[in-house]
Design a protein that fits this description.
Elements lengths: L5 E7 L6 E7 L2 E5 L1 E3 L12 H6 L5 E3 L1 H6 L3 H6 L3 H5 L5 E3 L3 H6 L4 E4 L2 E5 L6 E4 L1 H11 L3 E3 L11 H21 L6 E6 L5 H14 L3 E4 L8 H11 L9 E3 L5 H9 L4 E3 L2 H7 L2 E4 L2 E4 L19 H5 L2 H9 L3 H27 L3 H11 L7
Length: 375
């Protein structure tokens, strides 16, 4: 049994039912709901660990699949574990590698014992099973490890979704039986694609296995957002109230709000840094394409409401210039801003929950944030 982990609900919003909580881990407490920046290869792209702490990051996510292939979990263990390797002193969550294997549809084969696939780096033959995933994550030394699961594509038929869900359950049992590291929490993952009966069945089955926390996988894989929200609503009554709930791979501003209202405590997504590198930034009125010519003589900040380093020191005109000059600093400043925007948004959401006004906060958000276009 893992030690040093517990989750407590501090307050439930009277207006929305959303939860304000604290997840206690050996590397510190996590105030929830929380957005986790993604450091795929032990680094959030364009950012240093010190910068991540300065913008208010509570927990990072790193990728089991990528770290297994390069530099390898044994080297990271020799370095003293992932925290020391990347000089990060707060909690880390590692995903299981299941989603990355799922994305390799053309070069992998799933069997009951595990998944055989080709490395995207050199084409070498690789194998990950529930037991191998546990071994890799224990060697990395993350605070939270995820069970190895089978992610189902959208759209899919009911029979395929059920087969993948049942295999995910069997693999979850194998992960739990194999996992031994007491200073690492293990989360199970709810699957079931977009079928209400399967999602409820999966939530019940994983609940009965009594994991420390629960991921919700297989959403945000191309389906319309209302469909994702519907699935969250269907399974919410069957998720343990005393355990953290993690919606995997979701991180747009609107989805963060909608997820929290539907009982989610933890989120992650690469969207913030991916769009930043391509010249798009989140603002209080919607996404801005800072490379557009309209910002050539705009000497205001990316977002006048933002307190990040980019907004308090540089103008839109300057950052646009950096992108057009192909300076590396452009992507760094945009990344600092986008990450801080989401982290600050989660701070505001936690405050709104504490003050029992989250639905009012959502209304105010949609009144100013245009989801239909980029500026």
């Amino acid at each position: 049994m893992s030690t040093g982990f517990s989750y407590e609900v501090k307050h439930v919003c009277k207006q929305s039912g959303a939860r304000l909580g604290v997840l206690h881990t050996p590397h510190g407490d996590i105030q929830t709901p929380i957005y986790m920046p993604v450091g795929t290869s032990a680094c959030v792209k364009a950012m240093t660990s010190r910068e991540m702490e300065e913008i208010g990051t509570q927990i990072l996510l790193s990728n089991t699949y990528h770290l297994h292939l390069r530099p390898g979990e044994n080297l990271i263990r020799q370095a003293g574990g992932l925290h020391r390797f990347m000089d990060w002193h707060k909690p880390i969550l590692t995903d299981s590698g299941g989603f990355q294997v799922f994305s390799l549809a053309g070069i992998r084969k799933i069997r009951e014992e595990g998944v055989t696939f080709q490395s995207h780096l050199d084409g070498s033959r690789q194998f990950i099973s529930p037991e191998v995933s546990m071994d890799i994550q224990e060697a990395l030394g993350s605070d939270i490890a995820m069970a190895f699961d089978v992610c189902t594509a959208y759209p899919c038929d009911w029979k395929t979704a059920k087969e993948n869900m049942e295999r995910t359950h069997r693999w979850a049992e194998r992960c739990k039986a194999h996992h031994t590291r007491e200073d690492q929490a293990l989360f199970g993952i709810v699957q079931g694609a977009f079928f209400e009966d399967l999602r409820i069945e999966s939530a019940k089955a994983l609940r009965d296995m009594d994991f420390i926390g629960y991921g919700i996988g297989g959403l945000s894989v191309g389906e319309p957002k209302p469909m994702m929200y519907e699935m969250l609503e269907k399974i919410q009554p069957y998720m343990p109230e005393t355990k953290p709930r993690y919606l995997m791979g979701v991180g747009s501003p609107d989805c963060l709000i909608e997820g929290v209202i539907r009982g989610i405590d933890m989120f992650d997504c690469v969207l913030a840094t991916r769009v930043a590198r391509n010249g798009s930034v989140f603002t209080s009125r919607g996404r801005v394409v800072i490379k557009n010519g309209k910002y050539r003589e705009d000497f205001g900040p990316l977002d006048p409401t933002c307190d990040c380093y980019a907004c308090t020191h540089f103008s839109r005109a300057y950052i646009r210039h950096l992108f057009n000059a192909k300076e590396i600093t452009a992507g760094r400043l945009a990344s600092i801003h986008n990450l801080r925007f989401l982290l600050r948004m989660m701070e505001e959401i936690r405050q709104a929950i504490a003050e029992d006004r989250l639905l009012d906060y959502r209304k105010e958000f949609y009144e100013r944030y245009d989801l239909t276009k980029n500026f």
